[in-house]
Amino acid sequence: MISLLSTVRRHQLTTFFSLALGLTWLGFIPFWLSNGDSIPWFTFGPMAAGFIVASLSGGWTSVKAILASMVKWRVHPTWYLVAFGLPFATQLTSIMINPLFGAAAPAWANIPAFSEMVPIIALYAIFSGPLGEEPGWRGFATSRLLASHSALAGSLILGVIWAVWHFPLGLVGDLSLYGTINVLLAAVVFTWLYQNTGSVLLAFIMHFTHQNSVRFLGQVFTGGDYVQQQWLGVGIWAVIAVIIVAHYGTESFVRRPKMRFAVAGTV
Length: 267
Hints:
The protein is mainly alpha-helical. It has one domain (2-248). The protein is built from 10 helices and no strands. It is globular. The model has no long low-confidence stretch (mean pLDDT 93).
């Protein structure tokens, strides 16, 4: 037991990523067997892995740090605007310019009524990824990655693993190349948000807003027009990522000394 704890403490990130993928993919099996009709508990793999490794490597101090970041709401209002507004603005911009590239005019009537969307959005907030992923990716992994890597390198490492984490969705027809690339680019933007706020809550909001803006606003197009619009959205996310790196540099994505959040047993 002591040997196991020592190994986990020395290799926290390796243990976390292995456990996050393993728990998720194992939990995906019943979802796949049900043809996507069961509750997607597998989305909580990163959260579970984060809390498990945090408790084994740093005890209550490390667990408390993640929990505190999940409820940290006292940040500058500008960051709430970023978390809510950036994903919506990206999606709306891609919709508005899509006809310039040959797509049909947006069919706004295809978007469900707000009263119909609310219960679906509430369920998606819990089960479609934001709640189950962000405490792991941002709350646990980001601070540890940035302890030994630049913000850009850490973001890309996490982005690749985050993208791989989604691969089982291909078994139920819910995986695309543009979505996979978007995850890699989003990792840069999410690191920037987290570095400047220290808040998993804000990362949750951005994740939630991005998912639902794509899910509902994207319905204004179908077929090839929809695919083209999503690629345009990826292009906009790429521009945002490039602007962040150009403005802040690669090291920390902040304009002050690199932020260090409470992490016990960080290697």
